[in-house]
């Protein structure tokens, strides 16, 4: 078949190797993230013909792997855009998964001569960066927005390239939220150590371990428990959810390791609540339903409060240390 | 379970005069904000909108508008510190 003579076409398969799985685990934990990019360009999966569908994705390893894993038994073309190793949704928001890059890849892979049809299947979330009507006008290719989740693609194929209603909506399940928590944890480690060092510099380094422990509980509350239980915690505001969980968890911790006096008690609970609240607020970026206007509004209320409680906590901490109450 | 964020904040607007009822907005919206009734788009529930901007970008008739951006606290802090629009600093790979 003549089109296999195309120099630029790379081969891939729907089978993930052990190396892929290890790589994906590492990506989740933020290990070696940068090196898990896929080469942009055109790939053949199975034995596609000039009539086979063309699926478009980002060159983020997880996006690419999820896509090919869901294509077992199919023969398709996969067009990988250069999104600098960022997933479809975020890249579309930044514009790297965008109209210009798509047109560029159509041209540089000579897609016109590889397939006879003029249809491209894009992940629906790519729509944030792609103007379908412009792609059509300039390249002649019609953009079809496929399902949000790659795992729905076989059903989408069977359904004559029609998306059913459930495939359109972005979910945010417990599992979706949990896979995001490792990276939140990893990001908190260094700040947590710095804060512990500063606090124990004030309080005496013999307390480093217990201070670390308190902070760890606060991070756990804000970066793991709040995201996991998100829909079940009262309030719509992420920072309030985090504050609530942080406060409750610190109280439980105090049952176990009780602060020596009331000042220290108030100081610790304020700081732990603030840390949890702040981390939970940051989870807005990972959630799939918060809006820019909403987060701005939430922050305009939450940040002054967090700052106030933090200052109060620190002042009480210092008073407690030097007044020897 | 449908998760809803703050009420009455979305900047989404729909100009029914310009709308042709082509249905593209219903195809791209990740939260089912639109539906087509009597050949024109209607907003079902504005509070579900996450201001992603997919509808505006894909409406060939300029009928939908929304001030889009990332609903991401870190992005807003980062933007404020640098005096720019909110941006997610996801240089590392994943996002926000
Ligand atoms: S995409 Fe635009 S023209 Fe088409 S239905 Fe939606 S609002 Fe109307
Ligand atoms: S901005 Fe996004 S979430 Fe809001 S209506 Fe448009 S497509 Fe839907």
**Helical element count of chain B?**
3
Which ligands appear in the coordinates? iron/sulfur cluster
Structural class from helices and strands of chain B?
alpha+beta
Outline the low-pLDDT stretches of chain A.
none
Number of separate helices of chain A: 14
| Main sheet characteristics of chain B | 2 strands, antiparallel
Describe what you observe in this structure.
- Chain A has 325 residues and is an alpha/beta fold.
- Chain A is 56% helix and 8% strand.
- Chain B has 96 residues and is α+β, with helices and mostly antiparallel strands.
- Helices cover 21% and strands 12% of the residues of chain B.
- In chain B, strand 2 (34-37) and strand 3 form a beta hairpin.
- Classes of the chains: A alpha/beta (325), B alpha+beta (96).
- The interface between A and B is large, with 55 and 46 residues.
- One iron/sulfur cluster binds at residues 12, 28-31, 33, 49-55, 66, 68 of chain B.
